[in-house]
Amino acid sequence: MIMSDVALSKESPKYAGLKVSREEYLSLPDDGFNYDMIDGVLTLSPSGFFDHGKIANRFGHTLQNYLDRNSSGELTIETDIFLPDGGDVLRPDISFILNENLSIVKGHIHGVPDLICEVLSDSTRSRD
Length: 128
Known about the structure:
By secondary structure, the protein is of the alpha+beta class. The protein has helices at 5-8, 22-27, 50-69, and strands at 35-38, 41-44, 73-77, 81-82, 89-90, 94-98, 105-106, 108-109, 115-117.
């Protein structure tokens, strides 16, 4: 069965350009798009290219293999981080949190992870 392009397309992003507080960000219904919050403004965050995903996957896999042998913490991918300074919401490719710091995980991460990894892309290099 072949699906038409119309059936595969998403609706338009609802929140691109919207200025919000962190609390408003948390309460927005999912519209199927990913956003970065930069200076309080929601900016559409496109999916990474194949090489970006491949690099993030390899690094994450290497870290997870280590953690499987040394259970010192938890690894997560593409999880929102709410830093204590009250600023922008960040979503790095990979975040790691030591076991003793897991109390910062409350659905999202509310605090500073012990390690983050961001695979740089040409399109987002200036803000990453």
